[in-house]
Design goal:
Structural class of chain A: alpha/beta
Mean pLDDT of chain B: 88
Shape of chain B: globular
Radius of gyration of chain A: 23 Å
Strand content of chain A: 15-25%
Strand order of the largest sheet of chain A: 9-10-11-8-12-13-14-15
Low-confidence stretches of chain B: 1-5, 12-16
Radius of gyration of chain B: 25 Å
Number of helices of chain B: 15
Distance between the termini of chain A: 39 Å
Shape of chain A: elongated
Largest sheet of chain B: 8 strands, mixed
Structural class of chain B: alpha/beta
Oligomer: heterodimer
Order of helices and strands of chain A: HEHEEEHEHEHEHHHEHEEEEEEEHH
Distance between the termini of chain B: 78 Å
Chain lengths: 338, 530
């Protein structure tokens, strides 16, 4: 059995942070420092570290914050304390710092306690959980309990559906929490695009005669969420692991096809009692082409892929949970439990 | 009786439900299917601003998939020729760069053109046929937005022709009908009322969108956010704490190719009556009860109603006019106004106007509002500067330190943001006081570039949001406020013109308006440097 690692000297960490702040004001700069956020980042993949820290730094440049990085891939004995210069911010006016703890082999309770102890009271706490393991990781639930906003990415995991099932259970039991999922946030342009295709009154009735739904995506989470969104908006209920039923009880088989890049939807095929419609990308992913498979009624919708930074920003600042997400998550959760 | 289950929820009147997929989409910005008709489609505004704007609305996913564009003007274009013109406009003027495939190809299929005079019954009959065809073939649902980008002299004629052709709202049971009317809405109070009478015969007020592109600018919309989304400003936003308000709309450009129009208009009609009065209303109105369009426009109307009328005999104490002579802008020599193309050499038209107004209500009693606008000024600068009163008792400051009044500046263009000027101690052993600026800039603060005003406003009209458009009652009040000045200026040819060189701060006489404060403790007022 591996002996438990010694605890970090948090007083020393706090002293270093205080020293950094004073160094900023001693330089003669007119320092009006204020932080708006505790920003807790959990990571456990060395390959992702640079990407995650770069984006976190950009968020901190814009939103002065205390970042607490919990590095599950590191067992560094000493925490690393960095000032605002490390994140590319102007130390004379921005109060942002980053403290990185190597927490490999740390237990979930100790990780959560560490984050809690290093957080500034009275500030909201955003948790960015970058690990591909949400499902079954006890640290997630403990850190999430401490956060006002939680951002995960259920997409591209070993077990997308298990993750979403976990998230659905988490959301159901934490109604006051604000949960966001990258996999859902990335779908916003698809929601817009598909919705507006049915603004045409001539097509509207087709929405209520859907008999099959096939979604091709590079990872399962996006397909599940898109089906859950349509289902919850159209009053469908999951009636088996691979089908919804509409208000009349008519069965709507739902098929996921793994195709294309991970975290991207490739196409949506909607079969109705009268026709079959397909939406897919054109022009290197910037335009959605939608129409009947026989080519009639074709239309194009510009598709705005949002950059990950904007999505992170939205997730950590949004004060409430997106009601559509809540409903779609609940619908998919029910589907997965069938 | 057994009720058959249906997958489709019905409205209580039995009509099909709204699109359920739209519900709760946080970016619910997409307009309903519709056709947009541009009258004056071969004009400069359409070419430079409106066509690029509508294309960018498409790129921005604000135009619905079922849309159509129809150009209407006297110029003789085929559909294809107009599409080519439109593509050239987009390629040259669009902020998103040249038109791109496949979106442009899809867009172009929805563009058509009707050639004809504005008094041609046949041309309007042809327009009607095109609109009905669009409804059939492009699914535009009978929804029509008419955009009058024409000389004001034909506004009434177009409205009448629309009605005669059966294109008015009373003949359109299938969808909505809206009309956007460019400024100026009339050339004086009388003509504005006459135009309104004609427009009102065909369109209800809720269908009329009088566009003032200033209101579509992000910083102008931020005025309301600054005032009503913060608790720190509103308690001091009144006569107890504010000494005066200066609203400036200064341009470096001259009349360009608009000499013919401008020489019959002048700065008072072209800028003060609409843009600047709208800014005054936003900065001075009471908090609306909601963000609803009419709630906001009610308050704008009320504050314009409270503007103290200027007696004809007092115009000289309340208004100063100017006309630019030759000078230098950015080191380049520019000609005098009266030598510009299509301008009368003996013109008395003002290219600069400064006006002092008072608002007679509890909030603003005896607080002067100084409005000014000019062409060929030293710098392009539009802003609202709220100057607060002086401190009541001086505690700090070494001899020679001047403690300036606090000033809150809402910067509209070219800079976009907010700046607060306040006193601070200069570091060191002595208690020296100096004024410093605390700045917020839209570009760096939010890291985004604001969309051009026309994009915002056309999108709003398509969605039926009239918040940023001017209601008739406010237009009428604004005309009433400036009419005495117009009357006097028109009746008294200017003998002193030109009275400011191009590239300057404007005529020196404008300083007279500022006077001293009515309060003995206040420091001398000055125009903010342009």
């Amino acid at each position: 059995m591996t002996p438990e690692r010694p605890a970090f000297d948090l007083d020393a960490v706090r002293a270093k942070i205080s020293h950094l702040h004073h160094a900023g004001t001693d330089s003669g700069a007119n320092s009006a420092q204020a932080a708006t956020l505790n920003f807790v980042i959990y990571l456990d993949a060395t390959a992702d570290r640079a990407w995650v820290l770069e984006r976190a730094a950009k968020i901190q440049q814009k939103h002065p914050s205390h970042a607490i990085v919990l590095d599950g891939a590191s067992d560094a004995a000493e925490p690393m304390v960095e000032n605002c210069a490390a994140i590319g911010a102007d130390c004379s006016s921005v109060s942002s710092e980053r403290v990185t703890f190597g927490v490999r082999d740390y237990g979930a309770e100790r990780i959560a306690a560490l984050a809690y102890a290093m957080s500034t009271p009275d500030l909201p706490t955003a948790l960015w959980w970058t690990s591909t393991q949400v499902h079954g990781n006890p640290a997630f639930a403990l850190l999430a309990n401490h956060a006002t906003n939680v951002l995960v990415d259920s997409s591209g995991n070993v077990d997308d559906d298990g993750t979403i099932e976990d998230l659905a259970a988490y959301a159901a039991s934490h109604r006051d929490g604000t949960l966001h999922d990258f996999a859902w946030l990335r779908l916003a342009p698809w929601h817009d695009a598909i919705a507006q295709c049915f603004d045409d009154e001539r097509l509207r009735k087709e929405l209520f005669a859907i008999r099959s739904l096939t979604i091709a995506a590079g990872s399962e989470a996006e397909a599940l969420y898109l089906s859950g969104w349509m289902g919850s908006r159209l009053g469908w209920t999951p009636c088996s692991r691979d089908a919804y039923c509409d208000r009349t009880g008519a069965r709507i088989p739902f098929t996921y096809e793994r195709r294309g890049d991970a975290r991207r939807v490739s196409s949506v095929r909607i079969g109705t009692s009268a026709a079959e419609y397909v939406a897919h990308f054109e022009a290197a992913g910037s335009v959605l082409r939608f129409g009947a498979v026989d080519g009639s009624g074709e239309r194009f919708v510009p598709l705005h892929q949002m950059d990950s930074l904007s999505l992170i920003e939205r997730a950590i600042l949004e004060p409430t949970m997106d009601a559509n997400f809540e409903e779609a998550l609940a619908t998919v959760g029910t589907l997965l439990r069938q | 009786m057994e009720t058959l289950a249906t997958a489709e929820p019905l409205k209580t009147n039995g009509a099909p439900a709204d699109n359920p997929l739209r519900a709760g989409i946080s970016t619910n910005r997409i307009a309903e299917p519709c056709t947009v008709v541009f009258f004056g489609a071969s004009g400069d505004l359409v070419k430079r601003m409106l066509l690029p704007a509508i294309y960018n609305l498409r790129l921005g996913d604000i135009l619905p998939t079922n849309f159509a564009i129809v150009g209407f003007s006297r110029s003789d274009f085929s559909d294809d020729a107009f599409r080519a013109e439109m593509k050239n406009s987009i390629d040259e003027f669009s902020r998103s760069g040249p038109a791109k495939e496949p979106l442009w190809g899809d867009f172009a299929k929805r563009v058509s053109y009707v050639s004809g005079d504005f008094d041609s019954t046949e041309a309007f009959a042809k327009l009607k046929a095109v609109l009905e065809r669009n409804d059939q073939e492009l699914g535009t649902g009978g929804n029509r937005l008419f955009y009058l980008s024409t000389p004001p002299s034909v506004f009434a004629k177009i409205v009448d022709q629309l009605d005669q052709a059966g294109l008015g709202p009373r003949d359109n049971a299938k969808g909505w009908t809206r009309i956007i009317i460019e400024k100026p809405f009339g050339t004086d109070l009388e003509s504005a009322r006459a135009l309104q009478a004609e427009v009102g015969k065909v369109f209800d007020e809720k269908m009329v969108y009088r566009i003032d592109h200033y209101l579509g600018k992000e910083p102008v919309q931020d005025i309301m956010a600054l005032r009503f989304a913060n608790v720190i400003f509103e308690p001091i936003w009144n006569r107890r704490y504010i000494d005066c308000v200066q609203i400036t709309a200064a341009e470096t450009v001259g009349v360009e190719s608009r000499g013919g129009y401008y020489d019959n208009a002048g700065a008072l009609r072209d800028m003060i009556q609409n843009h600047v009065m709208n800014l005054l209303a936003l900065v001075a109105m009471e908090p609306p009860v909601s963000a609803d369009a009419d709630a906001i426009r009610d308050e704008k109307f009320k504050v314009l109603t409270a503007v103290r009328p200027i007696a004809h005999a007092d115009v000289a104490k309340h208004a100063v006019r100017g006309q630019y002579g030759a000078g230098n802008i950015d080191g380049k020599a520019v000609p005098a106004y009266n030598t510009e193309p299509n301008v009368r050499p003996d013109s008395s038209t003002e290219t600069y106007a400064a006006v002092k107004l008072y608002i007679d209500n509890w909030r603003w009693a005896e607080v002067p509002f100084f409005l000014r606008s000019g062409k060929r000024m030293a710098r392009k600068n539009s802003e609202i500067a709220v100057r607060f009163r002086a401190i009541p008792h001086r505690l700090f400051g070494e001899s020679g330190d001047q403690i300036e009044n606090n000033v809150l500046v809402m910067k509209i263009q070219p800079e976009e943001g907010v700046s607060l000027r306040f006193a601070a101690k200069v570091p060191g052993p002595k208690m020296h006081i100096r004024s410093v600026n605390m700045d917020f800039n839209y570009g760096t603060g939010f890291g985004v570039v604001s969309a051009p005003a026309y994009e915002r406003l056309i999108g709003d009209a398509m969605r039926g949001d009239a918040t940023l458009f001017t209601r008739w009652d406010a237009v009428e009040r604004a005309w009433e406020a400036v009419m005495p000045i117009l009357d006097v200026w028109q009746g008294t040819p200017a003998t002193e013109f030109p009275n400011y060189p191009a590239g300057s701060q404007g005529p020196a006489q404008a300083t007279v308006l500022l006077g001293g404060s009515h309060r003995a403790s206040e420091t001398q007022r000055e125009w903010r440097p342009i």
